[in-house]
Amino acid sequence: MQLAISDDLSDYIIAPDPGAARLTRAVEGFDQNGQATQISVVEERPLTIFLNSQEIVTAMTIGDYPEYLALGFLRNQGMLLPDDVITSTDYDDDLETVVIRTERETSYEEKLKKKTRTSGCAVGTVFGDMMEGLEDVRLPAVQVRTSWLYGLSAKINRTPSLYLEAGAIHGTVLCHENKPLVYMEDVGRHNAVDKIAGWMLSTGEGASDKILYTTGRLTSEMVIKTAMMGIPVLASRSGFTAWGVEIAREVGLTLIGRMRGQRFVCLSGEDRVVRDVDPASVPVEDKKHRRKSAGE
Fold first, then answer.
1. Pairing with 138, which of 46, 114, 161, 281 sits 20 to 30 Å away (CA)?
2. Could you give the CA distance from residue 104 to residue 62 in angstroms, rounded to a whole number?
3. What is the C-alpha to C-alpha distance for residues 172 and 212, in angstroms, rounded to an integer?
């Protein structure tokens, strides 16, 4: 049995909006036979993030939820501290800037000099002292049921999205048990994660009972960001890097990858996985809904 695209978005607090203005553009071209064709392509635009008076970074993004992206980026880079009081969040669409202001005076000139480029697409950077923030991180040892994982995969994969509309984009979803809650997409998977982190910071949403689902690779930065957000389970359709696995094991993050159809691989936190459903009972994934990683 194969599953079709679902229009039921009732579980979502924020769902993708593939029809939103400015996110895609129709572009004319020619196919392999030389025939004229028109397809939707994802837009990219710069977003410059300021913390108080200091310019921090310019990210290439699809342009939705800029405030969440800015807040999440600054929080995941350790520039916004847990006890910081945010006094304002100002987005200027014409200037394509977000300014986050705090009661605490901030200066990160030295930190910005130490940034290291990572394997991520778009703006994938991790600052040299981010690992220091992991020293005291020990995630809660919560159980994750395979019925939740299979249910999430089926729901998320059938949700109308920019990926299904135009491709060339990554998705990240904040989940609770078998329910997807907040689904963010962007040209860089790190941007999608940062948007979720910004939403959680804005709403005060707790992390200890959540699962983070991503379509991208389970790299060191993805693992670090998930751990710093306090989320104990990270799952992906794609594969792993060795350093990502090593960090996950150090902080107690349950790390599950290559999650497609009836299959998955757990490389960290196996003792917390409860296999409460027979994989043979899980419907086969429809090929037209598979992302490029499905052939790995």
1. 114
2. 30
3. 7
